[in-house]
Amino acid sequence: MNRPGDWNCRSCSHLNFQRRDSCQRCREPRPSSISTDLLSSFGGRPVGSSFGFNAAGPDVRPGDWYCSLGNCGTHNFANRSSCFKCGAVKNESSLSAATGFIDMSDGPRRGLFGFGGSSSGGGMGRSPWKSGDWFCSRSGCNEHNFASRSECFRCNAPKEPATEPPY
């Protein structure tokens, strides 16, 4: 369960306690206040689930996004081009629901607020996925795993060849 001030790692989506300055799982430094402020502007929704699932839980898939209009913050499926609740058009300021990152999958990679973003960049706009990363296929797990893993770090299920993302 999330408490005020807890934060999700922008690299691996691990939920960290407020007191941590770096991620417990991957040691990524805590995001600056700009990213914390940005996330809180989306209806105060934490990037992750209040039900104890990881942000990449069974109801959230790659490409899903949160509406960025005002305080709507509604979770939308990847195939939607507009928010099902308020009708706002999906744009670069929409947060990716699976990762909590700015979703740049449909447009040029300009990065956060129009500043340069690249696959080697270290900002919020960078993609947490690397070539070969995979989702665990075990029912109820669906955890994001790095390409170097042969089994899921969460449930120890073996990697299956069909679990790699198609992109």
Automatic annotation (TrEMBL):
RanBP2-type domain spans which residues?
A: 3-32, 61-92, 130-161
Which Gene3D superfamilies would you find in this protein's record? Zinc finger, RanBP2-type
Q: Which UniProt keywords apply?
A: Metal-binding, Zinc, Zinc-finger
Its domain of life? Eukaryota
* Molecular function GO labels: zinc ion binding
SMART domains on file:
ZnF_RBZ
Stored InterPro entries: Znf_RanBP2 (IPR001876), Znf_RanBP2_sf (IPR036443)
Q: What is this protein called?
A: RanBP2-type domain-containing protein
Task: Give the originating organism.
Answer: Cardamine amara subsp. amara
